[in-house]
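Can't attach files on this board, so I'm pasting raw text. These are the components:
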Amino acid sequence: MPMKAKIKITLKNGVLDPQGKAIEHALSGLGFDGVNEVRQGKYIELDLDHDDEASARKAVDRMCEKLLANTVIENYDIEFELS
Amino acid sequence: MKAHVIVFPGSNCDRDVAVSLGKAMGTPPGMIWHGDSEVPSTDLIVLPGGFSYGDYLRCGAVAAHSPIMKDVVSKANSGTPVLGICNGFQILTEAGLLPGVLMRNASLRYVCRDVHLRVERSDTAFTSKYESGQIIRIPIAHHEGNFFADDDTIDRLEQEDRVAFRYCDASGGMNGAGNPNGSRKDIAGILNKTGSVLGMMPHPERLADEALGGTDGTAMFDGLVEALQ
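---
Top answer:
Structure tokens for the assembled complex are below.
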């Protein structure tokens, strides 16, 4: 059964996010109040050929560690969905 | 002396560095395509500036896993000197040969101009023709040159004296005075533990000929030739 991995990559706490800051300023310039902080990240979808989630998770974990995220500055979170 | 420049799809300073290095060596360095699996026997490997793989995913992230990089990492780990300039520095961090990461400039702008650097180490093959504390003028041209590492890594770099160059103003003032991109501790270039791998955002190869408006970069290539001859 093919499945989809949905990967959310976000900056770790404490890592300065100038793009998030710029978005924050733009939002407040547009009159949107009440936004305390903006953090920008990445979203990646993979179509996988794996049968079970455990083996898929193992593989996607390795993909994130090796290439998709830079764990010096980024965290990643993986969700699976049967497609 | 034998030197080789690695050419990635999207490299655009490969020929510039070949000219500057070749002038110092008296013969041009070899150019090695990223898809090759081995760098021939060599005294120096250069990872040039540019936009390898269009900066997709993260700058240098895809190039760091190019076929040739296995051999570059293995040669670097056995002591072959490696110089990474700009995108080459980004590739070195992504390949794990240097710590930290080059983030988007704090100004969010691409910055292309000459900056001043203070030479922090003159006892490496890369910097032996400079003097420690010397202020030099070298161009930068990058959007992602904002050096970041966590506190422990920064402390370790400082304790082990691994900062090779820091941004400063024309009179050597630091603490942000000449910092063009928000790098922590004004860091413009760092070394690995043994001093055999240097990554730097500024481009010494772009100011190594009077015709280009200055020669402060020449000493790096002359120093390398003298040290690695």
